[in-house]
């Protein structure tokens, strides 16, 4: 993956100590290849690499005590910049009802995004209504109605009417039923075609949306630039929702969007459930791409669970290191937090670890691990390094597992401990203050 490639590049740099011009050239070549293979638009790659290289080649970087770290920091900065620097919130206007229109190709995830957006707005105290203006796909209105009723948001279907009439009708309906936001779900085609573009333009003219959001599938490769540019020309839009970022999309297309259109990415959609729409933060995304782990995301996720202890534990681990007790707590709360995968994916190197395990995490392993940790002494839990071969055998007997299970637990702890160490040094580096010049 892109993260793995970039991480390998950084690891090579870190292994060097002092850097020469040739090291930079070769690192930039690696980065260029990695980005191109991830489907980032070639012009975007060219500019990105040129800018990054220029910043890395200064004597300030080359002669510093930690040149590799400086290079990583510069790549992170530039990647964040490429993704839009700062978050771009969805701002609703004062008009009642406010109208949001979604555009994009068929299958890009418009209908799913419409529902998620409705759900998000509802949680913020709004009362949205969904308009089913896709009249071509036979079951489109049914799909929207079913999803709408799941989240208890009404859907205006206007059966039999044309899309423009449905969009207009939905606004009247909103006024009649005291709804303050209308989300218009439109039809798409598999490819750009004139009829689709014209229809989008006509709906836009008819309802004068306050916001037009374009939905883009993260798995779209190079072609994304054409699609997005065409929509930008014909209907214009205010921002982008990137869908299906939970899949194994290379996501490179998404990296090009901001640079090519100048339009901000506002949300990312990370699954099929209504609550999986997230505000897009360029810096967090850049860190994720660089495999630096989404520390803030993890802490937020913990906060969502209103579990203050979690946050404190995470902060303490960053400060003091990772013990078996932490591992036990982590495993227990991971179970609670619903799935190891999403959390592991946020940890530095976590995605890689997941892939190595074949992406299949058997959560029953948790229970075995728990039994093994329970069989350790307090000393061993605090400092697992002291667990020798004899003790491993004893722990295996004590918890009814094979010695190889104990070995893999120890290995797992070792990996986690290493990750925590990496994360710690990164938070120190990124956290400002110590960014020595
Ligand atoms: P539309 O044609 O643009 O309205 O696209 P849909 O909303 O109908 O989505 C097409 C398919 O992609 C459906 O099977 C959705 O369940 C799926 N989908 C949409 N968004 C996501 C997402 O964020 N993650 C995943 N995994 N699937 C998604
Ligand atoms: Mg649809």
Description:
The protein is an alpha/beta fold and 437 residues long. It folds into three domains: 2-83, SRP54, nucleotide-binding domain (Four Helix Bundle (Hemerythrin (Met), subunit A)); 98-289, P-loop containing nucleotide triphosphate hydrolases (Rossmann fold, 3-Layer(aba) Sandwich); 295-430, Signal recognition particle, SRP54 subunit, M-domain (434 Repressor (Amino-terminal Domain)). It contains 21 helices and eight strands. The protein has helices at 2-14, 21-37, 42-56, 59-62, 67-83, 110-123, 140-150, 163-176, 194-207, 224-234, 252-261, 282-289, 295-304, 308-320, 324-337, 340-346, 350-356, 364-374, 378-382, 389-399, 403-430, and strands spanning 98-103, 128-133, 155-156, 181-186, 211-217, 239-243, 265-269, 277-279. It has an eight-stranded mixed beta sheet with strand order 3-2-4-1-5-6-7-8, with helices on both faces. A hairpin with a 7-residue loop joins β7 (265-269) and β8. α3 (42-56) runs antiparallel to α5. The chain is globular. It starts with a helix and ends in a 7-residue tail after the last helix. 41% of the residues are buried. Mean pLDDT is 83; it is low at 431-437. Residues 104, 106-112, 188, 243-244, 246-247, 269-272 line the site of guanosine-5'-diphosphate (GDP).
Show the helix and strand layout.
Elements: H1 2-14, H2 21-37, H3 42-56, H4 59-62, H5 67-83, E1 98-103, H6 110-123, E2 128-133, H7 140-150, E3 155-156, H8 163-176, E4 181-186, H9 194-207, E5 211-217, H10 224-234, E6 239-243, H11 252-261, E7 265-269, E8 277-279, H12 282-289, H13 295-304, H14 308-320, H15 324-337, H16 340-346, H17 350-356, H18 364-374, H19 378-382, H20 389-399, H21 403-430
The chain binds guanosine-5'-diphosphate and magnesium ion.
Residues 110-111, 134, 140, 185 line the site of magnesium ion.
């Amino acid at each position: 993956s892109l993260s793995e490639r970039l991480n390998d590049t950084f690891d090579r740099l870190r292994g060097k100590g002092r850097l020469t011009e040739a090291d930079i050239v070769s690192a930039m070549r690696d980065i260029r290849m990695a980005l191109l293979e991830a489907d980032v638009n070639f012009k975007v790659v060219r500019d990105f690499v040129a800018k990054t290289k220029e910043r890395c080649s200064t004597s300030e970087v080359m002669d510093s005590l930690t040149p590799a770290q400086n290079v990583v920091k510069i790549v992170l900065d530039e990647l964040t910049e490429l993704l839009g620097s700062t978050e771009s919130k969805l701002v609703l206007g004062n008009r009642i009802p406010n109208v949001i229109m979604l555009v994009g190709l068929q299958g890009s995830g418009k209908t799913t995004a419409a529902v998620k957006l409705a759900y998000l707005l509802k949680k913020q105290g709004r009362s949205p209504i969904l308009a089913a203006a896709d009249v071509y796909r036979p079951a489109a209105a049914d799909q929207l109605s079913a999803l709408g009723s799941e989240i208890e948001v009404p859907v205006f279907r206007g059966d039999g009417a044309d899309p423009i009439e449905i969009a207009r009708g939905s606004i009247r309906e909103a006024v009649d039923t005291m709804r303050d936001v209308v989300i218009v779900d439109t039809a798409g085609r598999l490819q750009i075609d004139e009829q689709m573009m014209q229809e989008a333009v006509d709906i836009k003219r008819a309802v004068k949306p306050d916001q037009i959001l374009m939905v883009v599938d993260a798995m779209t490769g190079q072609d994304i630039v054409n699609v997005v540019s065409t929509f930008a020309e014909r209907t214009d839009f205010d921002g982008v929702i990137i869908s299906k970022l939970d899949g194994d999309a290379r996501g490179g297309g998404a990296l090009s969007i901001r640079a090519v259109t100048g339009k901000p990415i506002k949300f990312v959609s990370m699954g099929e459930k209504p609550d999986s729409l997230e505000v897009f933060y360029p810096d967090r995304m850049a860190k994720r791409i660089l495999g630096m782990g989404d520390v803030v995301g993890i802490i937020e996720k913990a906060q969502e669970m209103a579990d203050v202890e979690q946050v404190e534990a995470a902060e303490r681990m960053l400060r003091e290191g990772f013990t078996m007790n932490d591992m036990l707590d982590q495993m227990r709360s991971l179970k609670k937090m619903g799935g190891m995968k999403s959390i592991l994916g946020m940890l530095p190197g976590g995605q890689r670890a997941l892939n190595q395990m074949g992406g299949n995490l058997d959560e029953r392993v948790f229970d075995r691990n728990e039994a093994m940790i329970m069989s350790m002494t307090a000393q061993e839990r605090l400092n697992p390094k002291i667990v020798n071969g004899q003790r491993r055998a004893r722990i295996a007997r004590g918890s009814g597992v094979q010695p190889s299970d104990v070995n893999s637990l120890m290995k797992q702890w070792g990996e986690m401990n290493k990750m925590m160490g990496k994360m710690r040094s990164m938070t120190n580096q990124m956290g400002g203050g110590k960014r020595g010049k």
